[in-house]
Design goal:
The protein is mainly alpha-helical. The chain contains four helices and three strands, in the order H-E-H-H-E-E-H. 20% of the residues are buried.
Amino acid sequence: MAAQNPSDHIPLTNLAFHILLALADEPRHGYAIIQDIEERTDGAMRLRSGTLYTAFQRLKQAGLIAEAGRRPAPDRDDQRRRYYEITRLGRQVARLESARLAAMLSTAREKNLAGQPEGSR
């Protein structure tokens, strides 16, 4: 059974966090999630479908995502695609992870470690 305490899921892997970010606004199918992540990371993170679907299984088992109950309008849909959505627990976990990362970034800024690497200016 999935842990229901959001803090039990922290820290998230980069991939899990990116998937939750991709699903934060609307349900999406796998290829749309791959595209969203690649676009949001300026191509730094490129996923293969096998990697994505393995992560989906883990996130579903943890209760952070679920297959979406609703689908796009029939003229925008492909019945072969599976759509996923973030769950209430998944949203809580994503918020906790965001706060954790923000605190880390704050510390990095205090120590003058945030921003451009030296020599790249």
